[in-house]
Amino acid sequence: MTLEVEEIFGQENGLDTTDRVQSAGTALEELLVSAKKQDYLTVGVYESAKIMNVDPDNVAFCVLATDEEYECDIALQIHFTLIQAFCFDNDINVVRVNDIERLADLVGTEETGEPKDAHCILVTSPGAESWKDPALDKLHLFCEESRSVYDWVPTITLPER
């Protein structure tokens, strides 16, 4: 009796890795737009750290954005490591995005017109269980599938605009 790879590892869901990442990118964009409309976004490394420390139960999702600055900024790398550890300890899904300019466009600007620090974005909710969003459900599934293949902080590509 010979077992096929699909029989050993389960049936494929029909999406290859590229399709999964693109689908997750669309879901992330939808989630950020929806959360922004409802004022459920916390933007910025320090602002996010404060929220995680004070009220971790209301954090539904975490996005970390990397760019050239990240590669050269040891303090930012340490913050990311601590945020990731905190997310893992509190069962908060976390993803990385390599297009910080696109993220900054999605989350808007400060009152001064300056772009917000989009290196870390939290999707929060008063009573994290009370707010249901289909895009958030898709992203939770994407993160769960990624962890099953030992990709603990998957990278998502946002759709082109």
From TrEMBL:
One of its GO terms (cellular component) is cytoplasm. InterPro entries: GADD45 (IPR024824), Ribosomal_eL30-like_sf (IPR029064), Ribosomal_eL8/eL30/eS12/Gad45 (IPR004038). Keywords: Apoptosis, Developmental protein, Differentiation. Gene3D superfamilies: 3.30.1330.30. The keyword S-adenosyl-L-methionine does not apply. Residues 27-110 form the Ribosomal protein eL8/eL30/eS12/Gadd45 domain. The keyword Iron-sulfur does not apply. GO terms for biological process: apoptotic process; cell differentiation; positive regulation of MAPK cascade; regulation of cell cycle. Pfam families: Ribosomal_L7Ae. Involved in the regulation of growth and apoptosis. Mediates activation of stress-responsive MTK1/MEKK4 MAPKKK. Undergoes concentration-dependent homodimerization, which is required for growth inhibititory activity and enhances interaction with PCNA. Interacts with GADD45GIP1. Interacts with PCNA. Belongs to the GADD45 family. This is Growth arrest and DNA damage-inducible protein GADD45 gamma. It comes from Hucho hucho.
